[in-house]
Amino acid sequence: MNMGLGLYQEQTLKLVMTPELRQAITILQYSAVDLISYLQEQANENPVFDLEAAGEVASTKAEKPAPEIDWKEIVGNRASGEYSVAKNESTYNPLDYVQQGADSLYEHLERQLGYVKGFSPLQKQIALFIIGNLDEKGYLEITLEEASAAMGADVLEIEDVLSVLQHFDPVGVAARSLEECLLLQLEHLALDDEKITQVVRYHLQDLADNRYQRIADKVGCTPQDVQTMADLVRTLNPRPGAAFSQSDTRYVIPDVTVEKVGNEYVVLVNDVATPRLKINQFYEKMLNQQKSQEEAKQFIHEKLNAAMWLAKSLEQRRLTLMRVTQAIVEKQQDFFDRGIHYLKPMTQKEIAEQVGLHESTISRATSNKYVQTPRGIFELKYFFTSALSTSSGSATSSESVKRRIKALIEQEDRKSPLSDQKLGEMLLGEGIEISRRTVAKYREEMLIPSSAKRKRF
Question: Which run of H or E residues covers position 59?
Answer without folding.
Answer: none
